[in-house]
Amino acid sequence: MRIFAAMLKNDLILRAARGEKTERTPIWLMRQAGRILPEYRAVRNSLSGFKELVETPERAAEVTIQPVDILGVDAAIIFSDILVIPEAMGLTYEMVEKKGPHFPKTVQSKADIKALKIADPSDLSYVYEAIKITKTELNGRVPLIGFAGAPWTIFSYMIEGGGSKTFSKARRLLYSDTELADQLLNMITESTIGYLKKQVESGADMLQIFDSWAGVLPSEHYSRFSLKYISRICDAINDVPITVFAKGAWWALPEMKDINCHTVGLDWNMNPEEARSLFPNKTLQGNLDPCALYGSLDTIKSETQKMLHAFGDHPHIANLGHGVYPDTDPEKVKYFIECVKELSSH
To answer: Which of 107, 144, 192, 293 holds its CA 20 to 30 A away from the CA of 237?
Structure first.
């Protein structure tokens, strides 16, 4: 049974996701809880590092709520990481300061896959506890977004062992051993479905699937090894609105028309006008270039106006075209949020 908190005082983002008219455009930011905020850094510095923060529900809830209080966004997104799924499957990762995630052991063979399991939702109880605490402390102020990585993106890290410019090891497997690739993608997909269902049960009001490495695949492989599995996840979860964000996969947008999601996220290279015609019955999210926030206040305002104009009267959730960059001035981030609210009000 799903846990409900107080009646939402601000449900703009949920109404926009359902395609309803809203009095203004709702806004939240990818990576809004994080390094741009001194308040976040203070919490993180009080712990051993990123992973302890993710796995400590009270502190994860605290940094989840910070952007709501400090920046004025219309939704919170639970502070976690997409790589909790491979860890729950049996593949441990480390978060290396200034370098990113690293897997000491990677998946290279059938024997490696046999050593893994489909994650049991109970393996990630710290995430659900963080969601419950956050919902209680938000007390209905704004909705809470849950999330997971897309199976292809998780697969990439599990094969590659970390970030990569080419993900050539992961892509090579799609040509050399499709059976092995599908076996691992199936396990990730089943793990993710159980995980997201439990997030909703714990109180998440909407979900986002991050396909961070969508753009490295050729079109045929993206359909075969990514969209197919994302579609299975979306079909399995009907309780809350779902957003699919496939970074860099502008050429795959036409193939996303039939996915059972409510919102399609656009990166800053994707054309909102084209997306409006492709998705007449879906909400769009995005897509200001994160680098625009390095500009002057006048530049930020004019770029925000351009973005809002490009989406027109199509159901829209404002966001950046990717996560906010860590050296961005929080005051400029706040100004962008204020501009969206002011310029989109009817």
So the answer is: 107
Task: Catalytic residue, from 24, 35, 41, 232: name it.
Answer: 35
pLDDT tens digit at each of 346 positions of the chain: 454 445 899 999 999 999 999 999 999 999 999 999 999 999 999 999 999 999 999 999 999 999 999 999 999 999 999 999 999 999 999 988 778 899 999 999 999 999 999 999 899 999 999 999 999 999 999 999 999 999 999 999 999 999 999 999 999 999 999 999 999 999 999 999 999 999 999 999 999 999 999 999 999 999 999 999 999 999 999 999 999 999 999 999 999 999 999 999 999 999 999 999 999 999 999 999 999 999 999 999 999 999 999 999 999 999 999 999 999 999 999 999 999 999 999 6
Q: Annotated catalytic residue: which of 15, 18, 24, 31? A: 31
Catalytic site includes residue 44: yes
Active site residue 123: no
Looking at 24, 44, 112, 294, which residue is catalytic? 44
3-state secondary structure of 225: helix
Q: Using an 8 Å Cβ cutoff, are 307 and 268 in contact?
A: no
The verdict on whether 171 is a catalytic residue reads no
In 4-17, which positions are buried (b, 16+ CB within 10 angstroms) versus exposed (e)?
Answer: ebeebeebbbbbbb
Is residue 81 among the annotated active site residues? Answer: yes
- Structural domains for the chain: 12-344 (3.20.20.210)
Report how far residue 253's alpha carbon sits from residue 59's, in angstroms, rounded to the nearest whole number: 37
User: Which one of 40, 93, 128, 157 is the catalytic residue?
Assistant: 157
| Cβ neighbours of residue 259 closer than 8 Å, sequence gap 6 or more | 227, 230, 231, 234, 244
Q: Is 313 designated active site?
A: no
